[in-house]
Amino acid sequence: MRYLALLAALSMPLVAWLTTRGAFGPDTGDMSDRYPTLLAAAGYAFAIWGLIFLLDVAYGLWQVFRQSRPRRDPALPAATAGFVLTAAWMPVFSLGWFVAAWVIIVAALACVLYGAISLSQSRRAWPGQMAFAWLPLSLHAGWLSLAAFLNTAQLIVAHGWLSIVVQLPWSIVLLAGAAALLMLSNRAMRGNLAYVAAAVWGLIAMYVKQSGTSMEGASVTAVSALVLAAALVAQYAWLRRSRYATRIGEAA
Which keywords has UniProt assigned to this entry (predicted)? Predict the structure, then answer.
């Protein structure tokens, strides 16, 4: 499984490079632009994938070469599956198979988020866990937690399942769903800085994108994204403060 995790991690940047070269059709950015939504983020936000891929490869290498091993690593199978699904999403989305792409990204989110939560709730960390396991999976999960809802909006627009002209009502519902997932997950992880940072990065990029578009309702979703980003930061600070207070109380 350790070697499979490394291969899965390496597959993501490789497939991403092939996608940008047009191996599967239009790249993901061009495909996204064909179906504008009120939940779209500015293009620069997707540069975070470079950091995510780098850290995930480091995770795979760490799994292969680390000497100390716990008896059971619950995050490893989930992370491996999440990497494979993330790689699979890119060509499927480029091919315009939006329903399949949505299923894949939700499954990838479930896998990586499970791994991040497992590591965050672990009471005993083994050497290198924070830098080479917790950080990559938390960042990956944070980005996918928001990206899954962006993908959902594009799926709705691509198939015309809801109004394309008046997108604000259902976009707010999706944003509320994203808020619930992000805040509940952050709470389950007792305040996860990497997870919150990835989500806030995307939410600010959504604010930038929607502030510069003339679509009806864009200003509302822009402000809503900014409010959610602030709420996540505030929740993280509160959770960390509560955790610190608990430790002080136990030590007293």
Answer: Membrane, Transmembrane, Transmembrane helix
Q: What is the pLDDT of residue 22?
A: 87
* Residues 28, 90 contacting (CB under 8 angstroms): yes
pTM (2 decimals)? Answer: 0.93
Where on the phi/psi map is residue 188: left (φ > 0), alpha (ψ -120 to 50), or beta?
alpha
Residue type, 246: T
Task: Compute the half-sphere exposure of residue 209: CA atoms within 13 Å on the CB side of its CA.
Answer: 23
Residue 217 has a CB neighbour count (10 Å cut-off) of: 17
Q: How far apart are the first and last CA of the chain?
A: 43
Asked if the model's pLDDT at residue 234 lies above 80, the reply is yes
Give the integer Cα–Cα distance in Å for 168 and 42: 18
The whole-number pLDDT of residue 26 equals 86
Going by C-alpha positions, the residue among 247, 20, 53, 33 that lies closest to residue 154 is: 33
- HEC sequence for the chain: CHHHHHHHHHHHHHHHHHHHCCCCCCCHHHHHHCCCCCCCCCHHHHHHHHHHHHHHHHHHHHHHHCCCCCCCCCHHHHHHHHHHHHHHHHHHHHCCCHHHHHHHHHHHHHHHHHHHHHHHHCCCCCCCHHHHHHHHHHHHHHHHHHHHHHHHHHHHHHHCCCCCCCCHHHHHHHHHHHHHHHHHHHHHCCCCHHHHHHHHHHHHHHHHHHHCCCCCCHHHHHHHHHHHHHHHHHHHHHHHHHHHHHHHHHHC
